[in-house]
Here is the input.
Amino acid sequence: MHDTCKPDPIAALDAEARRHGARIATRCTRCGAWLVDPKSRAAHRGPKCRKAVSA
Ligand SMILES: [Zn+2]
Here is the structure.
């Protein structure tokens, strides 16, 4: 995996954190839950909240 042209800086941080058995998380902007799934993390929305408020 090359990380020279990664568009997501969090992905690089997450890879580093995972080496230490940790996770990078962001918070859901709607309910405040911590998100560790890459898609949810990038969207700052959990799966449920992404369904509840589409677009
Ligand atoms: Zn949420």
